[in-house]
Design brief:
By secondary structure, this protein is an all-alpha fold. It has helices at about 1-10, 25-35, 45-55, 60-80, 95, 100-105, 115-120, 125-135. The protein has 2 domains: about 1-55; about 65-135, no CATH class.
Length: about 140
């Protein structure tokens, strides 16, 4: 599931909440991208079904894979923080932090890109993943 999800991201990129693309549109774009890449494979339908399962977040496996994907995004943001690649308070990122969501996160103590990502995704994690994310903070 994660490989197929990453395959779609190779084509459409990592779409974040800041891209103003609905979840439905992101799923549609991802399915189209994977369908094009897998076009001539015998197991194309099986792989597409796995991607649908990932997007549903209904099975234990898809929930786990989804949380792994979110965790990876938070870790990547943490790497950007550690390298001082993104200053969320710089003039160039003014639009980024001027959303209601990010303003609330900043009021609650967010001071970095990883803080924003972690705050945004925190509700999707189960107890074990919350523990891991708390350590990332």
């Amino acid at each position: 599931m994660l490989v197929l999800h990453e395959l779609e991201e190779i084509i459409i990129g990592d779409i974040t909440p800041y891209d103003n693309i609905s979840k439905e549109e992101k799923i549609k774009m991802g399915k189209l991208a994977v369908s094009q890449v897998l076009d001539n494979l015998i197991k194309k339908e099986e792989y597409e079904n796995l991607l649908d399962e990932f997007n549903s977040h209904k099975t234990n496996e898809s929930k786990f894979a989804y949380e792994c994907d979110k965790l990876e995004a938070s870790l990547q943001a943490k790497l950007y923080d550690s390298g001082n690649y993104v200053d969320i308070f710089s003039k160039e990122n003014e639009e980024l932090i001027n959303t209601d969501w990010n303003q609330n996160a900043i009021k609650n103590g967010a001071r970095s890109l990883s803080d924003l990502f972690i705050e945004y995704d925190y509700q999707c994690y189960d107890k074990i993943f919350k523990s891991i994310v708390d350590n990332i903070k």
